[in-house]
Amino acid sequence: MSNENKSIHEFDLELICEYYANVERQGPGSPEVTIKALSFIDNLTSESRIADIGCGTGGQTMVLAQHAPGKVTGVDLFPRFIDLFNANAHKHNLQDRVTGVIESMDNLSFQDEELDLIWSEGAIYNIGFERGLQEWRKFLKKDGYIAVTEVSWFTDERPAEINEFWEDAYPLIDTIPNKLAQMQKAGYVPVASFILPDDCWTEHFYAPQVAAQEAFLKQHAGNKAAEDFIANQRHETALYNKYKAYYGYVFYIGRKL
Ligand code: SAH
Fold first, then answer.
1. Residues with Cβ within 8 Å of residue 64, at least 6 apart in sequence
2. Taking the CB of residue 210, how many other CB atoms lie within 10 A of it?
3. How many domains does the chain have?
4. What CATH number corresponds to the domain at position 152?
5. For the chain, which residues score pLDDT lower than 50?
6. What local confidence, expressed as pLDDT, does residue 12 receive?
7. What range defines the domain where residue 214 resides?
8. How many angstroms separate the Cα of 5 from the Cα of each of 136, 150, 158?
9. CA 193–ligand 1 middle distance (angstroms)
10. What's phi and psi for 221, nearest 5 deg?
11. Contact 147, 41 (CB under 8 A)
C-alpha cells in the first residue's frame, strides 16, 4: 500500500495530535451547522447534561454551549486536546458549564440515563457508527437525543478510486438510508438528517490546514513520517475536491425510544 493511501490510524499519534492541535477544528463542520443540528433538539433546560464525545480542542463544543442551556462534558482520548479544550472554555467564559475530561469513547464513565443529549462531530468513526449508537444509548435518558456526524455515500455506486480509498480508510462508510436504518435498529427514531455543506470541508476544515501544513513541514524537516502524513492529508483534500459529489459528512439526529 502506498503511503498516500495510508489510513490516518497508521501514522504516529503524537504527530497527528501535534498537527491537529494547531487548527481550530479536527473534522469537517461549522458553527452554522452545529446550530442547525441543535434546532432539532427541544428537550434542553439549565438542568440538562450534555456530552460531546471526541470533542477535540472544542471548536464545536463552545458553539454548542453558547446556544444550549445545561452542562457540557467534552470527552477526548488525547490529553493535549483536553488541555486546549479547557483553555478554550475559559477563553469563552464557559468554564462553569463546560469541562473537558480524558476518556475513551469505548469506555465512558457516565451513569446510565444521565444524559439529555449526546453530541459527536467527526469522531464516532473511531468506535464505528452503529457500535457507538448502540453502546452510548444507555447513557441517555428516555427521549434523550443523539446528534452525530458521519461520513456517508451519496450514491449507490462510486468511481473505483474513491470507493477504494474509503473502503480502506473506513470500511463502515455506507449510504444515508443504510445509516438511518442502523440508527433505527439501535433504538432511536431518526428525527432529522442533513448533508453538511461544502464549506464545512473547504473553508472550515481544509483551508486552515494549508498554513498548518507548511509550518509542520518546516518544524519536522527531514522527518519522513511527518512528510508522509502531510502528503496523505493533501491527497485526501485532492480526493475530496475531485469526488465530493459522491460522499460527504451527514448530521444524524435521533431520539432514544
Ligand atoms: N469533534 C471535533 C474533533 C473531531 S476529530 C471536531 O469536530 O473538530 C476526532 C476526535 O476523536 C479527535 O479529537 C480524537 O482525539 C478523538 N478520538 C479518537 N479516538 C478516540 C477515543 N477512543 N475516545 C475518545 N476520543 C477519541
1. 34, 38, 50, 52, 72, 119
2. 10
3. 1
4. 3.40.50.150
5. 1-5
6. 83
7. 3-256
8. 31, 20, 17
9. 21
10. -55, 130
11. yes
